[in-house]
Amino acid sequence: MSKLLETTAESGAPADCAEAAEPCGLCSATVVRPRIALLSNPKSTGNLAQLPRIREYCDAHPDLFHYEVEHVSQIGEAMRSIARVRPCVLAINGGDGTVQAALTELYNGGHFGGDPPPVAVLPSGKTNLIALDLGARGDPITTLDQLIALARGGDLSAYTVPRELIALRRGDAHGRPVIGMFLGGAGLADTMLYCREKIYPLGLPNGIAHLITAFALLMKIVLRVKASFLPPDPVPMSVSLSKSAIHGRFSLFAVTTLEKLLLSNELHGRRKGTLKLLAVEEQPMSMLRGLIASVAGKLGRSPVRGVHVEESDEITIEADSSSVILDGETFMAERGQAIHLRLAEPLSFVKLAA
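Above: the chain sequence. Below: its structure as tokens.
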């Protein structure tokens, strides 16, 4: 963890990014205040090769305050230290699970006095749905270069966008929520867990691992092959929305606040400020019809048999035993322990490209 400025930084909201030089207070020197705070998870798989380069880059750039955590339990302490530095941007270097844990602490912790800095996400980790949605692609060092250039310009307003968040609670829907942006359930969650637990341990490149997973899913859904080495069958789910409900077995089930979804660049006709749900019933023709509607740009514009496109302020998921994954963290919807999703207040994010 970088200790830069811990003796001189004060708590509070980020100041103007153009004002990054401050008198030391202990001597006559001028101290450079970091414009970017970088929170890294060294154990994120995508960081194993990149982290030495990132550490070297941070050492050479006083604009960066770098804090590394070994476990999500350390993110609260990380946020307290980062808040003292008063950065213009909080950058997160890790997979979607790291981003989710950081957003949960940022949302619940109150470390920035109600005015947190905008969040940027580096393209790291096995999955990068959030980074892709925000335009961060390719080399994380290139993303850091872009962020520093923007912060030095002083005005980030043209590059910040609000993003609504998902607040997840289990059981009685009270207590501290887990915060995220993309939830997968039913067959989608089963496939994600299959890839994580059965394919990733083989040590293959991400692209090949995802290709094998897609082939296994194709065998299961289209060819109706049943075997222990394939993803399991999805269990029945009951999903209650603000004004409706759906029931059944779903090959694909997703709830998101992101602009881009798995089957569509954007769900047409969807209004902002709601949770967006996409559920495809467990039938080959339902998947085919959904894919055709997506390619034709009609998904969400007109009804498609076997494909549910909904929006709601609240969603409740009930099942006997079914996994859901919120940005990398797995939760179980069980009898008497439903999953409750609500729209959370938005946070600001740095979007690097359209």
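The chain is about 30% helix and 30% strand.
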